[in-house]
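Re: the request from the purification team.
They wanted to know what the chain is likely to look like in 3D before they choose a buffer screen. I agreed to run a prediction and write the result into the notebook, where they can find it.
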Amino acid sequence: MRILVVKPSSFGDIVHLFPALALMREKYPDGELDFVVNPEFVPLLDYSPFPVRRKIIFERKKLGSAAGFFPALCRLYRELRREKYDIAVDFQGLFRSGLLLGLARAEVKAGFAAPREKSAAWFYNRKVAVPAGHAVERCGALAAEVFGLDGKLHQVALPLNPAAAAALPELPPRYAVLLPGTRWESKRFPPEFFGALAAALHRHDPDLAFVAAGSAAEREIAGAIGENVINLAGQTTLGGLFELLRNAEFVCGNDSGPLHAAAALAKPVFGFYGPTDPVLTGPWGELAGTFAAGCECAGCLKRLCPDGSYRCWQLDAEKVAAAIMEKTGGGK
């Protein structure tokens, strides 16, 4: 069985696909999987529960420039046409991901019957209706229908990256990871909240250390949490971030890719939600929990707060810390 998966981005969206990939691997243990992905997320595929044979790079930035468009398109076209697939699936549901599927040579070209952009479905010869629900479950429902899977979605042990783990600095024996960054400003609970949360958690558990993680662009935000927080934002590779999360006692953060990575690693995870819906895109797994202020504008899906009030950020750090300690069995 030769399979092509189109899911170029984003960090969290790719991680949401892992449970479905695990079931596909169980059914086709000798199958070959190729994966179309944005270059910045290539290291994520090292953690795929279905080993990826070929990582086909979707160079979005080059395709968006006048000078780089034609060479990048030719390379991509050659890679997509190089082999014939039994089944190709677009798990992204955008016009560009549908177009990539259309360029591939495959007997079956499948995708959501109601993709995020309707034009994506122009390129499918099999359209699958899936129920509304969490992104993990929607991907699982699409895979189940296309590949004839009958197993239940579950978390699997993700591969260990010894080299990435060895490259991490020496850390305290017990630590929690804080993830103060995210792409949308409206999803970014302020560093002051994370600082108050860390202080409250420390009062419950004085032996617990705190490590802030994220991208290089989030280093300043992470540094604003507090002096007693170890700031590793921008100081790890993507593999290093996974291994940092793997060894944490628990993880707290905004709705972001690393939060979903921690959930995929089966860590206790606590997400803070405002403009996005935790029912649809919350961390997925038995050890995951979310906190939301419950204001009338929650779930607005706006990248910036229209009136600048950010009412959805109004969480009580003391109450959140107490709830986390109760759920993890930590503290006094």
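For the purification team: The first strand starts at residue 2 and ends at 6.
Please add any questions underneath this entry.
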